[in-house]
TrEMBL record:
Keywords from the UniProt entry: Iron, Metal-binding
Stated name of the protein: Fe2OG dioxygenase domain-containing protein
One Pfam assignment: 2OG-FeII_Oxy
Gene3D superfamilies linked: B-lactam Antibiotic, Isopenicillin N Synthase, Chain (2.60.120.330)
Regions that span the bilayer: none
Domain of life, source organism: Eukaryota
Family annotation (InterPro entries): IPNS-like_FE2OG_OXY, IPNS-like_sf, Oxoglu/Fe-dep_dioxygenase_dom, Plant_2OG-oxidoreductases
SUPFAM superfamilies (UniProt xref): Clavaminate synthase-like
Residue ranges of domain Fe2OG dioxygenase in the record: 1-98
Keyword Nucleotide-binding: no
GO molecular function: metal ion binding
Length: 129
């Protein structure tokens, strides 16, 4: 779990909230935008797109583990967080996936002669090296 606090900043373009990343240790991430302040952005078609918070809803993000296990059928989206000029922002991300010492790889049912494995089978921690 990660709890993020982004204080307001009068010059938001001069600071980094959370740098662009995909959730590497996660199969799926459940994200709660605690006080419904905009700040989450995803990279779509090579552009950063702001995601408007939906009150009382979670954001579900595909993580790198699901990308690997689905042999790339699901993609882990690149995302970041920017700060707001006047409002503080809080979010809680819970990362769900296998223990890091478990080996992960594409599900064998998804590996065929026409869809070869796109990722090697290794421990989750080793993908981040
Ligand atoms: O604060 C957010 O909206 C994003 C948080 C996030 O991506 C993370 O903690 O991995
Ligand atoms: Fe994230």
């Amino acid at each position: 779990m990660r709890m993020n606090y982004y204080p307001p900043c009068p010059q938001p373009d001069k600071v980094i909230g959370l740098t662009p990343h995909s959730d590497s240790i996660s199969l799926i991430t459940i994200l709660l935008e605690v006080n419904d302040v905009e700040g989450l952005q995803i990279k779509k078609d090579n552009k950063w797109v702001s995601i408007k918070p939906i009150p009382n809803a979670f954001v579900i993000n595909v993580g790198d583990v699901l990308k690997i296990m689905s042999n790339g059928i699901y993609n882990s989206v690149l995302h970041c967080a920017v700060v707001n000029t006047s409002k503080e922002r809080l979010s809680v991300a819970t990362f769900h996936g296998p223990a890091l010492y478990h080996e992960i790889g594409p599900n064998p049912d998804l590996v065929t002669s026409t869809t070869p494995a796109r990722f090697k089978r290794t421990r989750a921690t080793d993908y981040n090296k």
